[in-house]
Amino acid sequence: MPHVLIVDDEPNTREALAEIVSAEGFTVASAQDLRQAKIHIVRQSPDVILADLKLPDGSGMELFEALDPGVSVEFILITGHASVESAVDALRLGAADYLVKPINMQRLKTILDRIPRSGDLKAEISSLRGELRRIGRFGRMLGNSAPMQNLYDQINKVAPTEATVLLVGESGTGKELVAQTIHELSLRRKHPFLPVNCGAISPNLIESEMFGHEKGAFTGADRQHKGYFERAHGGTLFLDEITEMPIELQVKLLRVLETGMFMRIGVNREIETDVRIVAATNRDPEKAVADGRLREDLYHRLNVFPLFLPPLRERGRDVELIAQSMLDQLNSDHRTEKTLSPAFMEGLIQHAWPGNVRELKNYMQRAYIMADDNVLHPSAVPLRMSPARAAPATSVSITVGISLAEADKRLILATLEHCGGVKKRAAEILGISLKTLYNRLEEYALDGDRVPEDGEVDAEPKTAPFA
């Protein structure tokens, strides 16, 4: 039976917590200060610690130092003086969660529900972590390079906690796969993992999609709709392209992160949610704050544990491992036995891969299809994009007297062509949102203009086990 240590200087609080914790199937010990708590920890290593932030002889966070680094302990901080700073500090130190006085007992029960009642789940997760590091595989990711090993170490540390994670990396580096791995290595792994692309939802619908709406809340709302926060209850919500979320909605997201409560559109009753947030962006988040794309207070709330994903060009010979794994999957799917030639492998290593793993996956699929025999050669599908692909956009000739609309159209289409049809990349160069770019391209298509097809890296693979 798992053991809980309650550390609080208020007798009534200790008694109330002990009663709740015992009813949830835990053994309980209590301490009124740091000195007593440290004695209890030596006598019996707890599985869970509920500790007040302010104790008579110091801060509850000092108990982190008393814990054995090799023992997994769920540390839940209790505070009567809630602030974003104290919450972030606690989560960065390794706290699994924090509670604000007066304690919401239902929220406490929700947190305790995530704690395994036997050693089976913990052993399963521990075994999974060890297995994932073999042969350069970590969850759905592949790679033996030093940057990836460092990333694996950081994921391993943050996954078991409740810390909010901010993933920063170029397009195609596998941010969703990292988020999935964090979820699968956490105690939330039996609950939903829900990915949301904030830049792909219409600004008019994003609030409804996030928080849901009641029947009749607005024109067309013919039934009740549960939003992402309800559907991901107990699990992990992955907010991709967080800088594309409208500023007015960022205010509401911040409130949900701070209170754990939200309201559906069309109703005044608050709903409690238990969701871990993993956010991601391919922008520099601090520049996004300076540019007004991301609220500073939301950035600090999301940036509890930042993870930087290395681009493929910085991962050495990982490209060989990933390419071989992709080919193995294609051979398995189509019952073939195709192989990679040495020249093909050398070409992969020399290429800069501006679209990262996403670009590599699409290239491998084309090379597989075009191979005339059972060996993939570079001549079948030449790598056209040079390492200098990220150079400034192609120049556009604009004569005096044309309309601004026509100049705007020429610039957008030329930039899109320069980016190989990759709309996300073109939108970044143009300094407009992806939604705005799609709207403009729809207008040009209606006018009969040729719009470039999607490029190699326009669609994020959702289930491909590569990164």
UniProtKB/TrEMBL annotation:
One of its GO terms (biological process) is phosphorelay signal transduction system. It holds the Pfam family Sigma54_activat. Residues 141-369 form the Sigma-54 factor interaction domain. The keyword Acetylation does not apply. The keyword Phosphoprotein applies. SUPFAM superfamilies: CheY-like (SSF52172), Homeodomain-like (SSF46689), P-loop containing nucleoside triphosphate hydrolases (SSF52540). GO terms for molecular function: ATP binding; sequence-specific DNA binding. Residues 3-116 form the Response regulatory domain. The modification 4-aspartylphosphate is found at D52. InterPro entries: AAA+_ATPase (IPR003593), AAA_lid_NorR (IPR058031), CheY-like_superfamily (IPR011006), Homeodomain-like_sf (IPR009057), HTH_Fis (IPR002197), P-loop_NTPase (IPR027417), Sig_transdc_resp-reg_receiver (IPR001789), Sigma_54_int (IPR002078). Keywords: ATP-binding, DNA-binding, Nucleotide-binding, Phosphoprotein, Transcription, Transcription regulation. Transmembrane segments: none annotated. This is Sigma-54-dependent Fis family transcriptional regulator.
